[in-house]
Amino acid sequence: MSALAWALVAVPLAAGALLGLTGRRWNRQAPALGVAAAAVTLVLAVAAALLRPAASTPLLAGIEAGLRVDGLSAVTALTVAAVTVAVLVFAAGELGREANRGRFFGLMLLFAGSMLVTVTATTLPPLLMAWEAMGATSWALIGYRWQEPQRVRAADVAFLTTRTADLGLYLAAGAALAGGVGSLRLDELPTAASPWLHVAAAGVVVAALGKSAQLPFSFWLSRAMEGPSPVSALLHSAAMVAAGAYLLLRLVPLQAAAGWAGPLVAWAGAGTALLLGLVAVAQTDLKQLLAASTAAQVGFMVLGAGCAAVAAGTTQFVAHAATKAGLFLAAGAWLSALGTKRLPALRGAARTHPVVGGAFTVGALALAGLPPLSLWAAKDEVLAAARVHGWALYAVGLAAAVVSALYSVKALWYVWRPLPRNAADGYDTEGPGTRRVTRLMRAPLLVLAFAAATLGVLALPGPADRLRTLVGDTGGPSPQPWEAALSAGAALAAAAFAWWRGPRPLPASGRAAGWAADWLGLERAARTLVVRPVTALAQLLADLDDRVIDAAVRRLALGGLSAARLTARFDAGGIDALVGAVAAGARRLGRWARRPQTGLLHQYYAQAVIGLAALLLLVLLMG
Amino acid sequence: MLSVIVFLPLVACAALLLVRLRDRTYIQVWIAVAAADLLLVLVAWLGFRTGGGLQYEQRLRWIPGAGVSYHVGVDGLSLPLVALTCLLFLAVAVHSLGEERRVRSYVCLFLFLQTVCLGLFAAQDLILFFVFFDLSIVGMFFVIAGWGHGERGRAAALKFFLYTFVGSLALLLGFIGLYLAATPHTFDLVELTRADPLAGRGAYGALVLLAVGVGLAVKTPTVPFHTWLPPAHTEAPAAGSAILAGILLKMGTYGLVRIAMPLLPASWRDYALVFIVVGAVSAVYGALVALAQTDFKRMIAYTSVNHMGYVVLAAGAAGVLAGTDAGARALAVTGAVTQMVSHGLITGALFLIAGVLHDRGATYEMDAYSGLAGPSPRLAAATGVAAFASLGIPGFSGFIAEFQIFTGSLASQAVATAVAVTGIVITAALFLRALRGMFLGPVRLPSSVGANGFRDLATAETLSIVPLLALALVIGVAPRLLLDVVEPASRVLVGLVSR
What we know:
The complex is a heterodimer. Chain A is mostly helical.
């Protein structure tokens, strides 16, 4: 059984690494190989969902690297694997011969494989490993077209932002160990001793909010749009952004044990759902609109996790994955065909490309929360849980649902406008379009649109109960009929209003609209509050290093040198001079001693007489 | 067996001095000797009983009157470093295939250095340790002065020599302090560890720890004793830099776990906070200063200060008994040893890459390059992998090391550890900036690059860089290979510190 668990993650990771290493060498075969690996992974995911394998191996002292497919993992892993297949089939149709397809498909498989490890890990280390590996592969995917500096810069922003939040998981691991959870098992985290329990919970919450692009980290998602469309489709639906929501759903018991974490997470989710929804309304670029809507829709999952509604959050996860992957692929199809993602330029795009347009319409209507499509039902499950936690939370959630109808219909309004006569003038803003959508690109669109429309069944009483049992979340609140009616009515009304208003669904002042269009100025704030001070500090310390610390060492060395010079002078002028003086004195004495030695006998006699006289005098004086 | 491993390079060095060969043959002989030595270490590794304490021990009388003997042996702390030394010297030998300046002296010098490095990690006697410690400074001085970048190279070599030599004198003072405290007087590491001669002698122990600590801190180097490192690296040849960062820096941190912690346990516990703070400050300071660099090699040099800071932090955390359990402290020590190995592999590779860059463009200035991934995709891929490995991405050894260090240290000193953790974001920022600036974007080459453009990695260069990164990957994915050897020794060390 454990072999199946290993195979589920090893197949995409190994295939991805191999394909990535081949680069352009197998450029022709790379798409087929990539899709095949993804398909095998999907088969393994289905098998794993049925058989529920578990595996474990020692990693660090007393800490295992465990994988297990339980109910929640089964649902999420299936979603990840299915969306990966759809996205890779699309990419096989989109990516031309000139692209480095080995690198692209290899990285996509590594990315998906990391997500699969994330959703099946039972201990913190493998979860964190996959979590960070996903961030690194997302960097390489967003910056896939590395020749263009702004894309690489966007990749840097995305990676650095999410990694900053990831520090939370490092701290959580340390706190868990300090709190007595030596195994670092996810299901034992709630037993950590206080205060470490709270540190662990805080770390997990920060990391999850960062990965899921919730407030205040949302801005990286905007920059992530610089990646190719299939990357956006996977990153925004079932992987990466969804990973944070998954982690919060998985660690609901930890939030409950910490007490404060649940309400905080719920409000962060609700706030993001509303505010980023408004950001989406203000966008004039289709991919940017969809990106902001991702943060908003993931906000509903986070809201569900904060309210301990695991089943509701999971339903939203699955429904949103299908919907958003389809929408991004549709946007990608237009981008590749028409060379633009600007909404005004996409007027009439649904009419010229009816298959893409149809799929996009189904997805957008689901995103708008219109009954009976999937996200309407999923969102109601979340809102029902929110209502139990307070009317204020429910009201914000409902408002966010209304806003989602506004931005979805805004996008629809544009693509269904009559085709302007000079439509082609607005095309090719991003690059030359191919003007056609291949069959390989259309097929996954239709599949995903179908899923987006129908996955609402997960919220019907029968399947919903099955799902609740599956993820171990029985006894939670279900939406009352009036709630479903209210949200449906509100969504329909908002949709009608937005259709009537057209390009500007909300009457807003220029400044507010500009603020929303700029993603609430979050990136600028991060630059002002974090990046610039850190860079300045780095420069300051580098100067300090040269001018003070190293200068002190140099001064010390110079001090030693001058001390040596001083000693040398003392040596020459003092000691050596003294030695010289002694020598000179001795020489002078010698010279004096030589004087009496004249060789004349009478002088010696005279000297002897003087000497004897002196002796006599001495004896007399002493006596 | 161990003595053969240690002295095989020196014997080869002596033999090469006697015969006259073609330049390339010298290097081929060197590669053969390094490979043979690596093979011997692999055999020793396979025969090593994990958890069996000191093995392959050998003790000969040397200066019995002064309590000095030739005593060598390896345990779980030193065997990985012995293996790393052999691997890195082999990589450097392969990388040096293109060397043309005074090849015989160059080869002999590196063979001599290899014996010195191996001897240091095998030494079980303080004087033996000290001799190898000092000889490593001598050897590296000649490498930087003789094969570095001209006049500035000689100045940097002199600075390196004087600074680290002063550090080694402090170390010697500490050793003599230990010798005098023991009865009977001895320099033997095993006997000193058993005797714990400074137990209960507060001020004396503190002074000895100060001397040993300063000596090792200069070599590691930690802030504020690190300023010899950037010029030494910038001016050294690629092979010298790789050895300096990969092996010589480890002598400092290895000294902490081999000498300072087990021989001075009481003082270590009393002053653990000093090491924790120095480690955390080095980690963050090194990362921040690295972020401000414009010179690729200087930047990597400062990231070494960051990485070694983590090691010192973990060693310090292992001295805090309150509020921690032995498991967490052993995890920190294991992380520290893993970090030594990991840093040797990854930074060794990065310095070899810097050498390739200098070979093509004659400058390390990052602004001089752009879009190198175009003309040299293999170099770009290797640098990308090395950069991500160095910034601690999971799947490579750096993550295994840093995760254990952070997780094991948090309980000891939560604030310092939390501060140190931010280093991994700063290193991420600086490596991403370097990758973006030099390798991605539109192609721009320095004017010094000839008409044939920017050559991609040659075979010898690939063969020297890729195995290092591959091993970092193996350790990152299957860490048990390394940890099975290290963990028992870490537990023993933690037990020694807490007695």
